[in-house]
């Protein structure tokens, strides 16, 4: 079974304005809302690719109810812990540039935390758990370390997509893969990473510390996957950028969907890259048809270290 865990889900309120007037009254040319949060995006894309998953994490209030309703209507199972405050609303402003305003999220109580830990103690050998997104300020800073430990004790494989130096402690617990983007990877080591070649030694450092595999996403520069034996590089297809929000989550979902079926790293990177770009070229998250139409343009090549 695949589980995703989003500690801080969101309703993403996407507003398009022709020209953004800071300090003035702006009216949207198009607006939409949908369930958000990194693990939730992974679950929604997995579903579109034909894979079942259960979405875990915390939801609360009318916004939390909205997320559960949509996921269940779409056919994704949910087992969220209910919290007292409302799930946050994140604003995604699309004008000449993309601007994001992400909320803080509700307060988690000790009881809420214990409930999630309890759920993790029911994981089984062969399960995958995707831990993705920011950690609410009321949760322990090392909660991903705790959750990774709990999952590993049960024999589950863990995928982590989060930013910040906590990742350096999480990797010690042996996640199956982590997916920083190149800026996040650089921040971990206080360096600036601009190219795939520069990224590889830092991905290797994370593997020396305990991560089994590392995917580095590089937006329009594509992505790379570092495994014990190989380094693979994937390009991006031709297309018009419409929305980069959720592209990274889509890469994770596509990679996982392919890997659990075939166990083939190069193929999984190809599918992941196509899924990431399909979302970048869509108003919302991608469809399976869109992903498949881009696949022939994605070339995965081996890279020397
Ligand atoms: N402008 C783009 N053109 C084509 N493909 C893109 C573009 N942006 C992203 N992608 C694809 O999606 C993948 C993930 O994107 P990115 O590196 O921006 O992830 P991220 O920083 O985790 O994004 P987010 O947090 O917004 O989901 C890239 O590796 C690439 O394959
Ligand atoms: O505040 P976090 O948890 O870091 O990121 C949350 C978020 O920006 O990430 C997703 C895209 O990856 C969006 O759906 C959501 O709004």
Short précis:
This protein has 305 residues and is α/β, with parallel strands linked by helices. The chain has helices spanning 38-48, 61-74, 110-120, 143-153, 167-170, 182-188, 196-209, 247-262, 265-280, 288-294; strands spanning 2-6, 10-16, 30-36, 54-59, 77-78, 81-82, 88-94, 98-101, 128-132, 157-161, 177-178, 213-217, 223-226, 231-234, 300-302.
How would you describe the overall organization of this protein?
- This protein has 305 residues and is α/β, with parallel strands linked by helices.
- It has ten helices and 15 strands.
- It has helices at 38-48, 61-74, 110-120, 143-153, 167-170, 182-188, 196-209, 247-262, 265-280, 288-294, and strands at residues 2-6, 10-16, 30-36, 54-59, 77-78, 81-82, 88-94, 98-101, 128-132, 157-161, 177-178, 213-217, 223-226, 231-234, 300-302.
- Helix 1 (38-48) packs across helix 8 and helix 8 (247-262) runs antiparallel to helix 9 (265-280).
- The protein is globular and about 50 Å long.
- The mean pLDDT is 96.
- Bound molecules: adenosine-5'-triphosphate and 1-O-phosphono-beta-D-fructofuranose.
- 1-O-phosphono-beta-D-fructofuranose binds at residues 8, 10, 12, 36-38, 41, 90, 100, 102, 133-134, 245-246, 248-249.
- Catalyzes the ATP-dependent phosphorylation of fructose-l-phosphate to fructose-l,6-bisphosphate.
- It catalyses: D-tagatofuranose 6-phosphate + ATP = D-tagatofuranose 1,6-bisphosphate + ADP + H(+); beta-D-fructose 1-phosphate + ATP = beta-D-fructose 1,6-bisphosphate + ADP + H(+).
- InterPro entries: 1-PFruKinase, Carboh/pur_kinase_PfkB_CS, PfkB_dom, Ribokinase-like, Tagatose/fructose_Pkinase.
- One of its GO terms (molecular function) is ATP binding.
